[in-house]
């Protein structure tokens, strides 16, 4: 099958590469010429485990290629996947300018039947707007060509994107058209040999399913953070509570880790966008608003704990940071709790000495060169000469630690653990002042 993917970011590149890997011919298009040039040179612009070798293998096999040329992209595939960004607008709603720009491009260049597949996370009603935009563009050209629009939201997680794409729990397709159903079945056939995973539904239901899934996961995290904050004030250990709660199969262990808040390119914007969608239809989505505000507060707890540990004066202090990405196994720093912390530290006159296994280049891209940010080559250098250590991301390599050694490195010696990686008693026994999330100490 010939497939075009428009937007070659996290979702577009993973989708295109995985579909090429099962034998389809895929052309990935992007307006970012530098990104496409790097991909053509065999370089992967993002960090995603396993992706680099998969891209290279499929490029070598001639099944995967890249372009910036919209006319070539539209001519290539019968299936035109839209995987461009849908960032939050000023009022929190999803900004559809990139999605609608792609719809216009498709309408401007198509010369035969196309299926336009909305893979970007888009509000309910967007498929209708894409359809209208394509129809208007065709009309302006004086063309009457047949096309369909369907919704196929993506559920992959960064850091495990290939596994999620190839072995996801379900493939949701919103369409009423039998022709589209047949084409989507052909597209995803290699993934449903073992088990039927295709879920056909109404377009609006498919669009809402994506937001509902992300909002539910974000709710679990904010809920547990609320319990952690309570536990802290009540002298209870939230880790024990987490195990007790998660053992109930109706609740489960996933997404109930307390921490310094959720980040990334999806949960924050999707919860806000769904709340905005609700407001647009005169419904006050109180739970969604609370999930968002609990998270905003949670992202500030690392700084609040540090400030308290230093009696409100962080000016001139050097703070070591372990982890910059919003979660392990990605270089993505969009809405990461580390950013909330760093920006608050700089405002307070402190200096940051940070290490992340994959996100340092992204950090440099976001913040540029500045005197109060030093990026170092490993976690050991990060704590050298620092007053305190803050753990923002639970990368595997941070999970073991010689506490006695750390005590000698830190001037204060304060450790703020935003991911509850260690047993408080063991850390405290080494003479460190250890503050995690919801583990009995209400600093
Ligand atoms: P991204 O920012 O990594 O990639 C988007 C790409 O689209 C960029 O490379 C950009 O240059 C390109 N682009 C913008 N306008 C374009 C145009 N007119 N033509 C061609 N290319 C264009 O974004 P992402 O993280 O891949 O997210 C894409 C969508 O998928 C969003 O709606 C997001 O909510 C959704 N999503 C993301 C994830 C995730 O984990 N990142 C998971 C599921 C769904």
From TrEMBL:
<protein>
    <recommendedName>
        <fullName>UDP-glucose 6-dehydrogenase</fullName>
        <ecNumber>1.1.1.22</ecNumber>
    </recommendedName>
</protein>
<dbReference type="InterPro" id="IPR014026">
    <property type="entry name" value="UDP-Glc/GDP-Man_DH_dimer"/>
</dbReference>
<dbReference type="GO" id="GO:0016491">
    <property type="term" value="F:oxidoreductase activity"/>
</dbReference>
<dbReference type="Pfam" id="PF03721">
    <property type="entry name" value="UDPG_MGDP_dh_N"/>
</dbReference>
<comment type="similarity">
    <text>Belongs to the UDP-glucose/GDP-mannose dehydrogenase family.</text>
</comment>
<dbReference type="InterPro" id="IPR036220">
    <property type="entry name" value="UDP-Glc/GDP-Man_DH_C_sf"/>
</dbReference>
<dbReference type="InterPro" id="IPR028357">
    <property type="entry name" value="UDPglc_DH_bac"/>
</dbReference>
<dbReference type="InterPro" id="IPR017476">
    <property type="entry name" value="UDP-Glc/GDP-Man"/>
</dbReference>
<dbReference type="Pfam" id="PF00984">
    <property type="entry name" value="UDPG_MGDP_dh"/>
</dbReference>
<keyword id="KW-0520">NAD</keyword>
<dbReference type="Pfam" id="PF03720">
    <property type="entry name" value="UDPG_MGDP_dh_C"/>
</dbReference>
<dbReference type="InterPro" id="IPR036291">
    <property type="entry name" value="NAD(P)-bd_dom_sf"/>
</dbReference>
<dbReference type="InterPro" id="IPR014027">
    <property type="entry name" value="UDP-Glc/GDP-Man_DH_C"/>
</dbReference>
<keyword id="KW-0560">Oxidoreductase</keyword>
<feature type="domain" description="UDP-glucose/GDP-mannose dehydrogenase C-terminal">
    <location>
        <begin position="320"/>
        <end position="424"/>
    </location>
</feature>
<comment type="pathway">
    <text>Nucleotide-sugar biosynthesis; UDP-alpha-D-glucuronate biosynthesis; UDP-alpha-D-glucuronate from UDP-alpha-D-glucose: step 1/1.</text>
</comment>
<dbReference type="InterPro" id="IPR001732">
    <property type="entry name" value="UDP-Glc/GDP-Man_DH_N"/>
</dbReference>
<dbReference type="InterPro" id="IPR008927">
    <property type="entry name" value="6-PGluconate_DH-like_C_sf"/>
</dbReference>
